[in-house]
Amino acid sequence: MLNGLDHTSLQIFKQFDDGRTLGDIATDFDVTINQVKKLKRFYNGIQKTRLSLNEDAAQQFASLGTKAVVLLPLLKDNLDSFAEVLMVAEPEMRREDLEQLMTHAKEKKQRIAEFKQYYEEHLSKIAKQQKIGTELEADLNEVRHQLKAQLKGLDKYPKAVQEKLLYYVGPYGEQFALRRRLDSGFRRALTAKGIIELIDYVWEIHDMDAFAEHLASRMKHGHYIEWNEDREYHRNPYGTASSEDYTQIRSFTEEFDAMEALQNEHMQELENLKLETKQLEKQLKEARAASLQSFQEANEAANLMSTREILRHRDMQNLALKWLYNNGYVAAPEVTLPNMRRADVIGYNAEKVIIIEVKASREDYSRDHKWPEYLPYCDAFYFFTDFYIEETPVGQLREKGRSLEIQLEDTMPHTCRDREAVTYAVGRTLSRKVVLGW
């Protein structure tokens, strides 16, 4: 059989080097023209790999034999993905294994493209919001400037006091008056000291400096300043006003009120923008964290599984991984063993290697006849099922409170024959997920 590694294939490669026609080669070696064409494709793939990458990559490609021709579309379309596949491809792999590696590489490329698009779109949104926010800040500062212009001399007070004065005080002819109610206790104290006075239903401010000083003191000591309807009701159930604003001076403060309303509108828009920007930044942070594909995303389930079974299978594998990890094992999913069988979950510590075969459906369990081939590569083997199964000679695990417990110990005599090869396979799998993302 011509597989690109046998003696005849190597002789035919020399004929390619000499430039002989495919028909003549087929005649001389008594093989079909299709066999020669396949070898030619393989031969060309080796040469192109050498030119596109390096000699080591070409030798790795050549070591796979003619089954490596399935990788040629990747070599043509995505050299980086092709190089990554060669990093993990092994000569013992079957054609379908190489096709699976190609699928993983293409999925990774798609994830990267989607993430890049997602990232750029969100960065663009954030940039636009920041621009809008800057414009709103400028508008807000202009409104604040106009408000302060109405209340001359405001700049001499601390900023926090300025904010309170802008909220409670309004222009009243050549003087100032309260636009909003104060806490009744605070108001009585100011009245007793002659700082404010009720004249014709308007609370005029006679001494703005003293008023600002008392505001600052109340703020410092945490005393009541704002009017609160519930609190005032408890103080005087029969004389509580129903509105925080004073209506008597509105005719004097229409322009001031309009500017304040515009300021509040800008402030609310800014707050909304900040919340939305924060949410976008959170999404970007989560996207960055997920750019390395997680186990749940990377896990591959059998083609015959339903969507529910696939999701449950992933969840069960995740539980098994955490159970092993919490018990002091180095654990990994989907590890290819030296005999090319793939363990759902495997873990090892200083004394023991454990393999867990996950079954999310009874049908999947019933058609699995390959599990004895795992036994030479572990000291304990367990089935973790989502349903009841009869007693088995190997172990059984059950879910308990989002963890696992041993339902049945593995009593079948077997030990890990080649611990070094198994632990190396686990390490390579974990390393591959970190380096390549799949």
Verbal overview:
It is a single chain. The chain has 438 residues and is an alpha+beta fold. Helices cover 55% and strands 13% of the residues. Helix 1 crosses helix 3 (33-52) and helix 2 crosses helix 3. It is elongated, with a radius of gyration of 38 Å. The two termini are 33 Å apart.
Helix content range: 55-70%
Order of helices and strands: HHHHHHHHEEHEEHHHHHEEEHEEEH
Give the end-to-end Cα distance, rounded to a whole number of Å: 33 Å
How many beta-strand elements?
10
Low-confidence stretches: 291-307
Biggest beta sheet attributes: 6 strands, mixed
> Number of helix segments?
16
Proportion of residues in β-strands: 5-15%
What's the average pLDDT?
A: 86
Supply Rg.
38 Å
Name the structural class. alpha+beta
Strand order of the largest sheet: 5-6-7-8-9-10
How would the global form be characterised?
elongated
Task: Considering the chains and any ligands shown, give keywords for the structure.
438 residues, alpha+beta, six-stranded mixed beta sheet, four-stranded antiparallel beta sheet, 55% helix
Give the topology.
Layout: H1 7-18, H2 22-29, H3 33-52, H4 55-63, H5 72-77, H6 79-88, H7 95-150, H8 159-168, E1 169-172, E2 175-178, H9 184-192, E3 196-199, E4 202-205, H10 208-221, H11 229-235, H12 254-289, H13 295-298, H14 307-326, E5 330-336, E6 342-348, E7 353-359, H15 362-366, E8 380-385, E9 395-400, E10 403-408, H16 419-435
Parallel strand pairs: 7-8, 8-9
Antiparallel strand pairs: 1-2, 2-4, 3-4, 5-6, 6-7, 9-10
